Amino acid sequence: HLEPELKVLLKRTQRVAPRDFLPYGVRVAGVDRPGIVRAVTELFTRQGINVASLESRVSYAADSGTPLFELEADIEVPSQLALAELEREVAALSDEENLEVTLEPGR
Question: If 66 and its partner were Cys, which of 61, 74, 77, 79 is the partner (CB 3.0–4.6 Å)?
Answer without folding.
Answer: 61
